Amino acid sequence: MAQARQHPALTVPGADLGRELERWEQGALKSSLAKLPERKTRFKTSSGIELKRLYTPLDMAEFDYARDLGFPGEPPFTRGVQPTMYRGRLWTMRQYAGFATAEETNQRYRYLLKQGQTGLSVAFDLPTQIGYDSDHPLARGEVGKVGVAVSTLKDAQILFAGIPLGEVSTSMTINATAAILLAMYAAVAEKQGVSAQALQGTIQNDILKEYVARGTYIYPPRQSMRVVTDLFAFCRERMPRFNPISISGYHIREAGATAVQEAAFTLANGIAYVEAAVAAGLDVDAFASRLSFFFNAHSNFLEEVAKFRAARRLWARIMKERFSARRPESCMMRFHAQTAGCTLTAQQPDNNVVRVAFQALAAALGGAQSLHTNSRDEALSLPSEDSVRIALRTQQIIAYESGVADTADPLAGAYAVEALTSEIEARAQAYLSKIDEMGGAVAAIETGYMQAEIAESAYRHQREVESRERVVVGVNQFQIPEGPPRRLLRIRADVERRQRRGLAAFRRSRPSRRAEAALSGVKRAAEGLDSVAPPILAAVKAGATLGEISDALREVFGEHLER
Amino acid sequence: MIHKERKIRVLIAKPGLDGHDRGAKVVARALRDAGMEVIYTGIRQTPEQIVSAAIQEGVDFVGLSCLSGAHNHLFVEVARLLRRKGAKDIVLFGGGIIPAADAPRLKKAGIREIFPPGASTQDIVQWIRKAAGT
């Protein structure tokens, strides 16, 4: 058996290395630059962090392994949240899907599960997200377009028909109407004979980022925050295996934020939720381990890997120092990642498969707990079945063929990655301090600070693309003449009509008086201090529709208008 | 003779429930930087609100942005209402996640030009200047 060979010490004593570096700079580097200048004078990441030509142990002079990295599964969790990471269990492969009616989406879920997907992720249409039934005038043209239409408990039943809710975990991208969809999910499970206690999954329930970036708010921020914390308590009591929130940087990034802004604004929102829950009387160690996060896996590979690691380390410090969390689990940032939709190009769409693969690889090297990979045709429409299969296969290839899942946090210790991790953490911390000075995330959102910062970054990005300072393959360089794209998914034109018809039948068949009484219960809770979650569950079971429950809350809370 | 030329006035609008406003904001700013007067409606506008804002503000152009797939209903509705209000001289254009196959139908309905994903803001600026005859 071969004996492990004795290596010389990896780090040269500081002073010597400094001299060695200088020798190299004056010698080999200088003559190389004389012959061939570098491609650019400055190499910058999306966040404007200037990358050095070379990173060495000298860049890690301040570095303390135990303090800055530690071990996987232990604070500060830089190296991941599980001791064995993907050697124990791979990340959950969870493709965000939903379109047209519950029947069609149910078919897609069954297809994805059959193809080896390991969790569900529900995309709802905009009326469902904004609290309008499919027959509302403002729903015209939007029904079943960006996700599935769910107005009634019956729709929810069809959506999950034949899917064992006691076995799969389900993530739902739902915010302003999260309480209603969570109630529907629990009610469907009950009909399947599965208790709420056993249900696993996540509701996004991150209303703050809706005001910042995504736009599916209904009520004003402070009233919305109350519903969010009501759900924290509700899940803790009745659905202990469900994550009551997914604090999301994804949409902030899609709106144009840089990697640093994404990390900073997401954590700022996270702080606001913890503060709100503590103010509502919850003990930090009773809920913090159920907070989950959602990040974007963007194109700048090293910066993205570093971003995930930096966010974990920063959150652990915040929970420990700022909120005095005692349990290590309370300091643990678990996150879902999705590849960056805004990087998909309509031009030469097959190139998107490659973009997605690299972004997904960054998420795996960054230690994501679950992952959605975008499909190549999503710059133009919702994905076709073929495209979504390739996207899922991309994850499977990374997981099973690339070998990166076989050791925890494999890029740790790389000088450039550690330097970037620390730099991103420091810059995100600077934003957090600024937001604290403004009075916290809610105030920073109400004054439009986050929105303005993001818009500025988005505009800068666009200018860089148009000046070709930033190359987008197939868009501003390497273009080819192209025909119209093939085989896009089209939402059938009769979806809205079918959905309205189903809704009318549902309304006729239900006991209206029971539904009305239950809606009064929702209003009473909203007016007082009691949690709105139990009466919403009662209303769902009594046959009240999503739009009716949302309207009951609108009457009490009012509606938010964009500034 | 020197006379100050009237600036081109543009309303950038987000019809429907879609909250993806990155593109709308970037285009609004690029047009402003190109010397136009730009009003941005914010998200979640009904076609009626957009048409009445366009008429009230006396704009020359209305740019519609939609990424939710509801363009076939919403864009066409804006065009119809503009015609009904006798504001035929206001030029409509649009952008967002709009499949090429939908463009002919939208153009027939009165959306003069569709800018697909990847379009540059400079293309939009030049197109507006040309359409305005300046």
Distance between the termini of chain A: 71 Å
Main sheet attributes: strand count, strand direction, barrel closure of chain A: 5 strands, parallel
Number of strands of chain B: 5
Q: Roughly what is the average pLDDT of chain A, rounded to an integer?
A: 95
CATH superfamily of chain A: Methylmalonyl-CoA mutase
Structural notes for this entry:
Chain A has one domain (65-466): TIM Barrel (Alpha-Beta Barrel), CATH 3.20.20. Chain A is an alpha/beta fold and 563 residues long. Chain A has helices at 14-35, 65-69, 102-114, 126-130, 153-159, 178-192, 208-214, 221-238, 250-254, 259-279, 284-287, 301-322, 351-365, 385-400, 415-438, 441-446, 449-466, 495-509, 512-527, 533-541, 546-557, and strands at residues 92-93, 96-97, 120-123, 169-173, 200-203, 242-243, 245-248, 291-297, 334-339, 370-372. Chain B has one domain (9-123): Cobalamin-binding domain (Rossmann fold). Chain B has helices at 22-33, 47-56, 71-84, 103-109, 121-132, and strands spanning 9-13, 37-40, 61-66, 91-96, 111-115. In chain B, strands 2-1-3-4-5 form a five-stranded parallel β-sheet, with helices on both faces. In chain B, helix 3 (71-84) links the parallel strand 3 (61-66) and strand 4 (91-96). In chain B, helix 1 crosses helix 5 (121-132) and helix 2 packs across helix 3 (71-84). The radius of gyration of chain B is 14 Å and the shape is globular. The mean pLDDT of chain B is 94. The interface between A and B is large, with 43 and 32 residues.
